[in-house]
Every structure is written in structure tokens, then in C-alpha cells.
Structure prediction request, 249 residues.
Amino acid sequence: MCPPAIETDALRKTYGNTVALQSLDLSIEAGTIYGFLGPNGAGKTTTMRLLTGLSDPTSGTASLSGTPVGDRRSIADIVGYLPESPPLYGEFSGREQLEYVVGLRMLDADRTAERIEELLAQFDLIEDADRRISGYSTGMKQKVAYIQTILHDPPVLLLDEPTAGLDPRAARQLKESIAQLSEAGTTVFLSTHILPVVEELADTIGVLYDGELVAEGSPDAVTERAEADGDATLEDAFLAVTSEPMANR
Prediction:
């Protein structure tokens, strides 16, 4: 039996007396698109940093595809991480940025060159691929950042606000890419404030509030938590489970 693609056991992070994440337990199967929601300061970015090994937990454990997260080198090929502020070099062209990632990850240059061209074309970047990134729009930078995140075909993707700065066409392209990757078996851990993106893509939703997972389940199951009429939306549910009285039940 294959281990969960993402698994945490009592994962906790504190900064002094401040609790950023409280005893988080997750078990996410391969191929799942997991929508990770929560208000600002809930602990979503902290969770992603713990899952990538960029931050060490105060206690508890995390693993990706059965590999403990503690050693960042051991999970480098397993995970692709798109942070909210992606690391890009303005003096590089889009193509040079991607070629740099190929060298950094020691990927097969010949095989990857074809994939780079396919992805540049998919995201309408061919004509601008040799321009410096410093002259790109926010949306163009976001597309390059997403491409470099998936370039090594990781089985687990952690995406923090992936549609930020994208126009409707580009957002649609990215959502289609996420859906296609999931269908091929990639696990996507998706954090965003744009609830329609989660409603459209997610198989499972988890809602974090004040560092604690206060709701988890299918979109329909989480929506039922709104305790409203049959027309309740995911927004209704999100507001309900992140209100003080509900979250403290």
C-alpha cells in the first residue's frame, strides 16, 4: 500500500509564545487536489514552509510520499513549491530562468529543453521568452514561476496563491494545468484566497483558523458546515467555520 502523498502527525510550530500551527494532522492521498483555506495569519504559509523543510517544526512530523521532510535534500525531487513571492532573477530572460533551474536541479538538458518550449507555448510566453524578467508583468512572472515549479515533474506540488496577478485567460490555463497534473497522479496542495478556484478544482478542503484545522472534507461536506439553507456557498461555510464561536467548538 502506498503511503499518503502528504502526511503530518501533530505538526506544531511556535515562535516564542506565539503558536503559529497547532498539532496539525493531515493524510492526503496521491492525485488529490487539496484546497487549503484560512484567513491571513491562520498558519497556511507556515504549514507550507514546514512541508518543504524551509522551517523546522517545534514538534511533530511531516512526510511527502513516505519520505520524512527533515532532510530537504531527500525531498528535493519529490516536491515543487510555488511561494507567494516566487524567486526569479530579473536580469535573466524567462528562458534563461528556466534553464538555470534545469542546471540547478541537474535535469537532463536535452529532454527538458523540449518541455520548456512546450510549457512556454502553453502559457503564451514564447514571444517574450528571451526578454528580461525585469520587464515582465506580474502575471508573466507568475507564469514563469509556475513553470519552474513543475519543470522536474514532482509528484507533490505546494502552490501558494498560484493565480495571483493572472488575467482570466492565464488563470484558466493554470487551472487546466493543475487539473491535468492531478489526473496524471500529481498531488496538489493549493492555498488561495480565491474561493472559486478551490470550488472548481479541489477534491478535499481543509480550513485553518488560528493555527488549527477547524474543518476538513469534500467541498459539499465543508459547505454544509455553514448551517444555512440549501443555497449555502463555500464562502458562507468559510465565514462560518472561521468565526470565533464556531472555530472554538
About this structure: The longest helix spans residues 168-183. The longest strand covers residues 18-28. Residues 87-153 form one domain. The CA atoms of residues 22 and 212 lie 5 Å apart.
